[in-house]
Amino acid sequence: MKFAAFSGVFMAHSIQEAMKLTKKLGMDGIEIAAREPHLSPTTSTPRIQEIKALAADLGLEIPVLAGYMGGFSTASDRECEQAFSDFNRLLEIGGELGSSMIRVSPGGPNAFMAYDYHYAKAAHWLNKCAEMAQKLQIKLLLEIHNESLVETVDSSMRLLNLTQHDNVGMIHDAGNMYITGTDYGRNSIVNLDKHLFHVHVKDEIRVKEAGAPGTFLNMTHRGQEAFLQSRLGEGEADHQPMFDALKEVGYNGWITLECHAPFPAYERLMHDFQAVKKMLSRE
């Protein structure tokens, strides 16, 4: 397995500083959040070349560009066309940076509130994206995420079964799945099978109300709930069964750490990286 830091954790830093801090942590690569000030579909060619050169100097890979475009299931046709255009530009950037995966959002609402037409519309645009990505041998990532069509393994498979390309797959995210209240342990890894393309790691915990640093609100099947972003082991998402399952199935892909707990960015990622290595070393 290879480890990456999510540049979104370092949004208070420039992308250059984020890359240097990632190298200092001892990670293999950086997953770049495709929003400014780090990177976006409008990023200039000279900046892209600068990022590429720095990655080479540091010996860092850029396996994923975490796009924020999409939302196809509920967007207007004009919005979908713009998102598709943005995706194609990010695809070009990914090819230049040597990225093998690009994230795109299928949209919402929560799977338990979605209708067939939401999945059909999302699949239509995802198929267009996947066709373009396939030409560059790039994979299309959908993140298992609360408040989306793909908030469980079952709802992920529902959408994947409507896609026509084998370069579309899932990001497993135990923290997001904890929020949803769905299984994120062994069965979730085994049932994703060949559709497991990437892994995100972060911890969360339910709290009584939002407002304090690191807290946020999300709609779940229980209603509106408050959560606190936490460091691994300080929240309620037990990642050990997931890591055990990754070893069991022989997963050898990337794991991105993206802790957003209310601690200094470098400190929280260092804490989580040590926790991940400890869990993976358990026999």
Task: Summarize the structure in words.
Helix content is 41%, strand content 22%. The protein has 283 residues and is α/β, with parallel strands linked by helices. The longest helix is centred in the N-terminal third of the chain and has 21 residues, at 77-97. It has helices at residues 15-25, 45-58, 77-97, 116-135, 153-160, 174-180, 186-192, 240-249, 265-281; strands at 2-6, 29-33, 64-70, 101-105, 139-143, 168-173, 196-201, 203-207, 215-220, 223-230, 254-257. The strands form 2 sheets. It has an 8-stranded parallel barrel, surrounded by 6 helices. Strands 8-10-9 form a 3-stranded antiparallel sheet, with helices on one face.
Write the layout of secondary structure elements.
Layout: E1 2-6, H1 15-25, E2 29-33, H2 45-58, E3 64-70, H3 77-97, E4 101-105, H4 116-135, E5 139-143, H5 153-160, E6 168-173, H6 174-180, H7 186-192, E7 196-201, E8 203-207, E9 215-220, E10 223-230, H8 240-249, E11 254-257, H9 265-281
Parallel strand pairs: 1-2, 1-11, 2-3, 3-4, 4-5, 5-6, 6-7, 7-11
Antiparallel strand pairs: 8-10, 9-10
Helix pairs in contact: 1-2, 3-4, 7-8
Helical proportion?
40-55%
Rg computed from alpha carbons, rounded to a whole number of angstroms: 18 Å
Question: Number of DSSP strands?
Answer: 11
> What is the distance, rounded to the nearest whole angstrom, between the alpha carbons of the first and last residues?
16 Å
> What is the multimeric organization of the chains shown?
single chain
